[in-house]
Amino acid sequence: MPASASSSAAAVWAILRKECRSEWRTRYGVNAALVFAIATLTSVSFAVGRLGNRTDILSAILWIVLLFAALASLSHAFVREVEGHTMTFLRLIAAPGAIAFGKLLFNLLFLGVIELVTVPLFLILMGGPPPAWGAFLALLGLGSLALASAATLVGAVIAQTRGRGALFAAVSLPILLPVLAAAVSGTRAQWVGNPVGAELRLLAAYAAAVLGASVLLYDQLWED
Amino acid sequence: MSLAATLPATARAVIEARGLRHRYRPQRGLEAVSFSAASPGVVAVVGANGSGKSTLLRIVAGLLRPSEGELRVEVDGRAIPGAARRPVVGFAAPDLEFYDELSCAENLAFAAEARGLPSPRAAALAALARAELAGRADDRVAALSSGMKQRLRLAFALLHRPAILLLDEPGSHLDDAGRELLARIVAEESAHALVLIATNDEKEGRLAGERIELRGRGLGHPA
Description:
By secondary structure, chain A is mostly helical. Chain A contains nine helices and no strands. The termini of chain B are far apart.
């Protein structure tokens, strides 16, 4: 492996480990995300009971809960660095691309942890039909990759702006709508026994496009 | 392995600036400055508040792109562009902050690991020892006084034995013992590295053999 590639990989790995350690110490995002997910699912469950075969509503609830549980933390991946004045420290030890991909890997891991708790709870409380596990897990995986890569890129772009909180919602929601639409549609389709190939291809293409844009953009992002 | 890990401890560094200028709209951050400096040695960057001392150091570190002019940084004859200067530059400045939730050793080990240094924890402890902060290695940064944080900044700058050491107001928050330590560190580093110190403090200025005087307008004369 060339020296630059191996040092970038070392930086990405170091940043991922640091993010995990910081999250473990502060519980900055995971507590809020889990409380949101659990509170939403139990509230809906108490209000409407088990939804049985209403796969249209079930798939929408699942992805709305995942989206909003995750977004509050994903948006802060870079904002925390700016507000804590640690961005200079990071920029002095790693290339922008390595920083961004370390953050992206952490966001993916974070989403995985949220889903590990939220999805079983959702299946138990909402009482949906048993999923077609292969298609269901593929949709969760690709949906998470698309969601995390888009949220990481938007978070990096808006981190140094003044109205970053409001900007994140305004910029990310239209960008994330195709992910949400494809994920909801695919999740419903797997429940009713329809093919999910089109939704999976759309999510994969979306994630690939955002990751490609990220590779081109990250090195330009934090030049003053 | 990173560039820092492959460079000899006595890598020769040269900085040449021609008509270097920076503008933070709408104000000027740095009026045109030209200079040349080479290792080993210590150069003081002096000037009024707002004349651009910190801006100049950030440009040399590769953190800031100058609005105008040319800056050439060479290490052992190799030109190092701004984006690739991380491995050869050590940087300490008052606005450099660390992760409060991590200990001093964890912050520096993270930096060493990200830079691709072998034995990150050992490199972190060695740097902390140089800054006489070894006794606080396992304390979280949130628990440090401002003087201790300044020592941590010095340790961070020394972590990878850089060919160019950029110290922005390095004596700020330091007590007498801290200032003596700073003088010792600068003397040791100046034996092999190029040290640039941005300061308004006469004592710190005397650590340097040469001076770059910035003639910016300063705070009293808005651009």
